[in-house]
């Protein structure tokens, strides 16, 4: 029975991270830490961006949940930490590899969900400033981005 609790907490943490991502993106990254995030909207000629610091910032809590959970044999915390880590891995794969094409992969997908993710993120990147943006979440995509128009410019990958 305890294993079901671990599994439940893993998925609760995984899907709860979508709210954390939305909140931190809208109010922190587009708020007082815009200085770190703005190069992600404006693009850079370098491989790494200031925005990449957020991956380290967001990895610390999950690391602490896992490390301290194992240290004190509190495996409920370990399950939460691994759920957070799994979300971070999915986020990296979808955001950096699929959407922004840092590694050329799945460029020509026809999967409706993946195209909607790409459209939502492209819509978010329309603004080069921290104001007047939309679509701050990531895994949960507004239904308006599920369009049948394959020629829609947001159906292409994002270059910046």
Q: Keyphrases for this structure?
A:
160 residues, mainly alpha, 5 helices, globular
Overview of the molecule:
- With 160 residues, the protein is an all-alpha fold.
- The protein has one domain.
- It contains 5 helices and no strands.
- It has helices spanning 2-32, 34-42, 53-71, 75-99, 112-124.
- α1 packs across α2 (34-42), α1 packs across α4 and α3 runs antiparallel to α4 (75-99).
- The termini are far apart.
- The mean pLDDT is 89.
Oligomeric state of the chains present here? single chain
Mean pLDDT: 89
pLDDT < 50 runs, ≥5 residues: none
Distance between the termini: 47 Å
Amount of helix: 55-70%
Radius of gyration computed on alpha carbons = 17 Å
Number of domains: 1
* Fraction in beta strands: under 5%
Could you provide a short overview of the structure?
The chain has 160 residues and is mostly helical. It has 5 helices and no strands.
What order do the helices and strands come in, and which of them pair?
Elements lengths: L1 H31 L1 H9 L10 H19 L3 H25 L12 H13 L36
Helix pairs in contact: 1-2, 1-4, 3-4
